[in-house]
Amino acid sequence: MSILPPPTAGFDLNVPILIVGAGACGLVAALAANDAEAEVLVVEADAAPSGSTALSAGLIPAAGTRFQRDAGIEDTADLFAKDIQKKAKGENPQELVDLLAGQSGKVIEWLADRFGLPFSVVTDFDYPGHSRRRMHGLPTRAGRELIDRLRTACEAQGIDIICNRRATSLFVEGDHVRGVRLEGPNGTEDVGCDALILACNGYGGNRNMVREFMPEIENAVWFGHDYNQGDAVTWGEALGAETLHLSAYQGHGNVAHPQGILITWAVITQGGVQVNLNGDRFWDESQGYSEAARTVLAQPEGVAWTIFDSRIAGIARQFQDFKDAEAIGAIRTADTVAELAEVTGVPEIKLTQTLFSIPTGGPDAFGRSFLGEPLQPPYCAVKVTGALFHTQGGLKVDPEGRVCQTTGSVFPNLFAAGGAAVGVSGSGDSGYLSGNGLLAATILGHIAGSAAANDMKEEHGHA
């Protein structure tokens, strides 16, 4: 990951806007730039567009959309912004929070109206920290569908996406990026550009950076995309870019073990609990799934059993991942607590005490209130561990997605969005509000793509 002067022999190819990364961020940025009539090229290190998006539930939080209104939900960008800051204890740059919350509804409706993405709001359970139901997802509630539909939209617009091309160096002159060196199956290619958008996510796949910035999660299962190696931060720091909250990340404490399948947090919010191998509950599970990763990893053998019932399983089946977990036997079922103890290997006496001590009204010893229905047979259980999904710190950007320099100015034609830029999750793991990753990916991606395209128009106008 190096910074080089422009090649003396010139570039093999020149494009107006080059986007590194074909996850949700890069593809939305490409669609936005193309909509503003700019020519764009997307390069992707993997064999196909995927990224961390494909491993997620594909849910994007947005406020004030018609999808919410159709479901009878009243919401505002201001309320959304307050929820983001409350979860992160006010640690986020307010300008960035207001920007993402304020643009969220518009971008969701644009994706639906312009490209036919069939969004609907998750209306049958609440996500921790959200005061309104604002999670917008596609029919399968799977990130793979989101990526596939965005890719199809790009192809329909004639946007070129070249895969198996890993960006290894930036060509820089002064404070302008002039191009990128790509490594592919046939060697290296040097591509010149008028604007560069870094949409290559964060550094969760780089064990050295994880150990440096977030040592408490270094032993977690890595559930992100292996190409998330911190390229944007590495380049940025070499250029004198400002970084922020490099210790922030999204974890998840409900990944089926050893199957490695994400189990929706709905099994918790609807009344499920987590117990360790001794049969004890060990925390207030309603806080959120990000901080659950560290909490679960602290238990014996770094695992826990998530216990719920058939009513809750019915709600969880709207997620393709949950159905996949059921299909391969990761979800155990039992008609009695004794049978539940047998299928989980948890001591029956302790498990009985734990399940029958869950209050039906006020708060328990951990401060969690159970206001729904108590767990009833048949029971369900899944063995889970803690995972690192993606990092939330990154390059500091201005309201157009331009990368900020440590001197206080910006790089005129270098943009960062999604996991490459700082998110709105505060400085650790507990500041992550459900959906923050895809919020930053899609909304900031749209902003950066639009701003880069507007630059092209101005340059063309001055030519």
UniProtKB/TrEMBL annotation:
UniProt xrefs under InterPro entries: FAD-dep_OxRdtase_2_FAD-bd, FAD-oxidoreductase_2, FAD/NAD-bd_sf, Succ_DH/fumarate_Rdtase_cat_sf
MF (Gene Ontology): oxidoreductase activity
Alphabetical GO biological process terms: steroid metabolic process
Pfam families: FAD_binding_2
Keyword Oxidoreductase on entry: yes
Domain FAD-dependent oxidoreductase 2 FAD-binding: 17-427
Coiled-coil stretches noted in the UniProt entry, renumbered to this chain: none
Cofactor requirement: FAD
Record organism: Marivita cryptomonadis
Keywords: FAD, Flavoprotein, Oxidoreductase
Protein's name in the database: FAD-dependent oxidoreductase
